[in-house]
Design goal:
By secondary structure, the chain is an alpha+beta fold. The protein has helices spanning about 20-25, 30-35, and strands at about 5-10, 40-45, 55-65. The chain has one domain (about 5-65). A 3-stranded antiparallel sheet has the order 1-3-2. The termini are close together.
């Protein structure tokens, strides 16, 4: 199983922000993510100041790892 697991959020109207981050940032869903993501174990994968040099992607989030390298989530196959 990969160590880093991520997902791309999209709203019910199909808006994902790909190519237009400002469009995704304007969504109430994004405001909810910013406010609640930490509570549910998510972190923004590529913030505007990403050290990886990857373009800002407000729709792309990853599951936070614990100190042990594990997450609170399990993938069932």
């Amino acid at each position: 199983m990969p160590r880093r697991q991520a997902l791309d959020f999209i709203n019910e109207n199909g808006i994902n922000g790909d190519g237009c981050p400002e469009q995704f940032e304007a969504l109430p869903e994004f405001a909810w993510l910013i406010k609640n993501a930490d509570r549910f174990g998510f972190i923004l994968s590529y913030p505007e100041d990403a050290k990886e040099g990857i373009t800002y992607e407000p729709w792309h989030w990853r599951i936070k790892e614990k100190d042990s390298g594990q997450t609170d989530f399990a993938i069932q196959e």
